Amino acid sequence: MNVYRDATWVLEYVEEEDKKGRIEGSMQSLVLRACTRYKLKSNPKHIYALVDSAWKYKPYLEIIMKKSDILKDIPKKKGSPMYSRLTVLLLCHDLLFSKQKRIQMGKLPIKEYVLKHKTRLHSELVKLKLKLKVKDLSQLIEKEEISNDVTPVRWIRINPLRCPGNDVNSVLAELEKKFTQRVDHWKDIVPGCIYHDDFIPNVFGIHPQDKITSHELYRQGKVIIQDRASCFPAHILNPDKNDVIIDACAAPGNKTTHVAAHLLPKCEKGQLTKIYAFEKEPRRAQVLQKMTNIAGCGKAVKINVGDFTKLAIPDQYKDVTGLILDPSCSGSGIFGRKYVDSLNRAKRLQDQEKKHQQNDKEENDLILEEEEQAVASDDPDLQSRLSKLSSFQFQVVKHAMSLPNAKKIVYSTCSVHPEENEKVVIDLLLDRKVQEWGWKVAGRENVIPDWPRRGIKGEFDQVFRKETAKCQELADSCIRALPREDGGIGFFAVCFER
């Protein structure tokens, strides 16, 4: 019952967000946000699985529930219904759409109440499927856009800090026992195969269906799941033994532990803190601490809980020479957003339909398709949010640039929007203080030069007009990765140096 109770809280939260007219973030982030807000004790993974599926089926469940009169018959206590509408919905979901087709709880009154309506619920489900001309409602839910919203490759990296003598070969040999066939390109990966990445050392691609999390290497921290693009920042920074690094927006800790894997093997044992990690949220800071301990770099990383721009006073961090900055962004390049995004687009299109009369259905369908594409880029809510995010991102990077002895900064996002990427770079290059401090964009030769997809030249052309060579050079200095097309999440990275 606890999972249903907690899932009800989360579902109420999602409904509240939906009533605002636009859901922000992926369903996973919404669930985690609600779990934190309400301090829920149930496993977030279990809540997410239930809420995610129930939300997808919710429009159909509401029709079925209304037709069956299950909500009308709820007994009352002191004039109020004894059972929450959303709790009943969750139970109906499991009864009708879960794999087991059963309610996962003991003999409680609410379960008995729902089971009393089982025959009517099933009858209304059958009628709805006939009306919609489908054998199963999942046919309507699992559209290509949504079902493809998963990573094409599960990227992993070997963590040298947990390898004997920092030598990754023994761990690689263990991996190759599980993944017996090596392929030459990530697109050729099938279950049981492994791909050795050409761009980032000790990074490998496996099929998403291969469960690496159950392997002992993963449990021991010798193998870490991290998207290839997310490995770019530490690889670009490439610190040596004399460097002291800040990860300004560190949780959950993938980039922190990756930069530690670059730095610590070069250092002598017993050296003091080499990495300062900042995380604003206390709960996420706990996750960060746990991850650094598992990865074997906990003693070398000092975690600061709070806002980097307020805690990292320049005069107190004179030893810092390099920084990784991956601040909050729109997350438009990550997986798990398309279902929520499709709901947002549908909501906008419904609003448009109310305003305009439909004369010719065929013609109108074409118009809607074009409008949908336009909304994705011209949505005023999105533009407003991107403006706020880019302003925040600019301030974080500029603050990092104020550290007196910093020589190298890698800025990255998991966004595909130029507003958070090239335009932030341009704003920084035009800033007087940044110019006074001597910061410039590092050339392509120092930023994974063989990676083919670079920055968008047109964004620089709009500002540095008639300087074609400069614009090309700046665009080439930036790295971009497109979601799915480049084998993982959408990503942007650029390196500043002085």
From TrEMBL:
It comes from Zygotorulaspora mrakii. Keywords: Methyltransferase, RNA-binding, S-adenosyl-L-methionine, Transferase. InterPro entries: MeTrfase_RsmB-F_NOP2_cat, MeTrfase_RsmB-F_NOP2_dom, NSUN5_RCM1_N, RCMT, SAM-dependent_MTases_sf. The keyword S-adenosyl-L-methionine applies. Belongs to the class I-like SAM-binding methyltransferase superfamily. RsmB/NOP family. One of its GO terms (cellular component) is nucleolus. Pfam families: Methyltr_RsmB-F, NSUN5_N. SUPFAM superfamilies: S-adenosyl-L-methionine-dependent methyltransferases (SSF53335). S-adenosyl-L-methionine binds at residues 249-255, 279, 307, 326. One of its GO terms (molecular function) is RNA methyltransferase activity. This is SAM-dependent MTase RsmB/NOP-type domain-containing protein. Residues 144-498 form the SAM-dependent MTase RsmB/NOP-type domain. GO terms for biological process: rRNA base methylation. PANTHER family: 28S RRNA (CYTOSINE-C(5))-METHYLTRANSFERASE (PTHR22807:SF4), NOP2 YEAST -RELATED NOL1/NOP2/FMU SUN DOMAIN-CONTAINING (PTHR22807). The active site is at residue 414. PROSITE patterns: SAM_MT_RSMB_NOP (PS51686).
